[in-house]
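User: Thiol methyltransferase 2, Papaver nudicaule:
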Amino acid sequence: MFAISFRPHILRLPINLPSKPGGLFHTNKPFISVTRTNPKMEEKRGEENHPKNSTEVEKMQGLLSVDSAGGWDKCWEQGLTPWDLGQPTPVLLQLLDKETLPKGRVLVPGCGAGHDVIAIANPERYVVGLELSENALKRAREISLSSPNAKCFEFIEADFFNWRPTEMFDLIFDYTFFCAIEPHMRASWGTRMHELLKQDGELITLMFPTDDRDGGPPYRVSVADYEEVLHPWGFKATSIIDNELAVGRRKGSEKLGRWKRCLSHSQL
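Assistant: Predicted structure for Thiol methyltransferase 2:
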């Protein structure tokens, strides 16, 4: 989904996540391959260019303007999820296919229906999908029932800005999350990335939307917006490129950023 919204009281259960990924199925690749063609994705590409999509975004924004705390859950309940591709993000599948991602513990904040969580998970990567919407997580758990790597991921209902895991992460993947939080919360997003990512970990940001637009969500983002909140914590971009695998109307307004933390940082 676009974001985990914020509410003052979050029910959180203590969790003990494994420090090493494991499972019954011994395969080092995700069970979904980037080379496969999904008819639903082709259908989604058409929907991205349909006026219906704009109408859904307007309805979504209307719900959030009335109820910023519970609006995201209502969007999932009513099926107003124009950000949901219905399958894993194509460029993420490409990265997995090239085997360029870190192994270990992975976090996907605002995971929505969990497609990316399921795709990343394997015995070498234990993935946590974090989400505030109960209805989104219900959908994620339904989808994940058929996953061969079910022991390699979990979904947690919690607020990204308040959640306190027992261990840090080797990889964090952010897509349609940074753009969904209100711009005044972006500095807090940067702080949380610093708190959650291991010193030698990697942050992957799929930056969307980078085109000119007013209002939100999704709110307009730029490379400079990410640099502003990540540089003070020692993050440096190792690669920022246009996302050639962006879907539908997102083409031309997405960039793929890969970030690593340096040994020192400055708050100046």
